[in-house]
Design goal:
3-stranded antiparallel beta sheet, 221 residues, mainly alpha, Arc Repressor Mutant, subunit A, disordered C terminus, single chain, 6 strands
């Protein structure tokens, strides 16, 4: 709004109102000018309104929100993928069972002769206290007295039968002896072993043990 001592005018573009108050000469002089200003203002307002309306319509519509799921159904929906995964895992997982290896005794000459001592006498002389020592004594005997380069697991079991002793799980005994004792080593084939230098020295110089060795806790078959 603007005013002076002679006249007062008001322009309301939003409502489309133009008011002029004052002397007739003042009104006549400025009326046409205010009408032109008013028309320009209305035109500009209409143009801006159209541009804003077009821009609003051009915007992509927001994605529709899913309908509200009842609490009970929502809970079931949340747990369903997890249950399917658990079921799938239960159906897909196959527990690999350890294959059972059965080693049978293999006949071998263990009797005394003119050229060698019998296994029973040698076993009684060395007095091995546990299965690791016993298996090493048997491999030593077959290597040194029977002149075998390698010894089969089944031949070791025949040695147990010869001295009338309980047979252990020979696969585990040899494997652990190779890994932890170092008295035996893997042979050229599966279920075949060889005597090491450490095993040879153990049987030759350390048996029979002076203080006695601790009994073996291996599981017997």
């Amino acid at each position: 709004m603007s005013s002076n001592s002679e006249a007062r005018f008001t322009i309301n573009v939003k409502e489309g109102i133009v008011e002029l108050e004052g002397k007739e000469s003042f009104v006549d002089k400025h009326l046409e000018k205010f009408e032109e200003i008013f028309k320009m203002g209305v035109k500009e307002a209409i143009t801006r309104g159209l541009e804003q309306n077009i821009a609003f319509k051009a915007q992509p519509a927001p994605a529709a929100l899913p309908e509200e799921i009842p609490q009970q159904e929502a809970s079931a929906f949340e747990h369903a993928p997890r249950q399917r995964q658990q079921q799938k895992a239960a159906n897909g997982v196959k527990h690999a069972s350890r294959p059972t290896v059965t080693i049978h005794p293999i006949p071998v000459d263990l009797k005394a002769s003119d050229s060698k001592i019998g296994l029973r006498e040698f076993y009684a002389e060395k007095k091995p206290a546990n299965h690791y020592e016993k298996a090493t004594v048997f491999v030593y005997y077959l290597t040194k007295f029977n002149k075998q380069h390698e010894v089969k697991f089944g031949e070791i079991l025949s040695c147990y039968e010869e001295v009338n002793d309980k047979k252990p799980s020979i696969v585990d005994i040899v494997k652990n002896s190779v890994r932890y004792k170092g008295w035996l080593k893997q042979g050229s084939e599966k279920f075949v072993t060889r005597l090491t230098i450490s095993g040879e020295n153990f049987v030759k110089f350390d048996l029979p043990a002076k203080g006695g060795s601790k009994p073996d806790q291996s599981t017997l078959t």
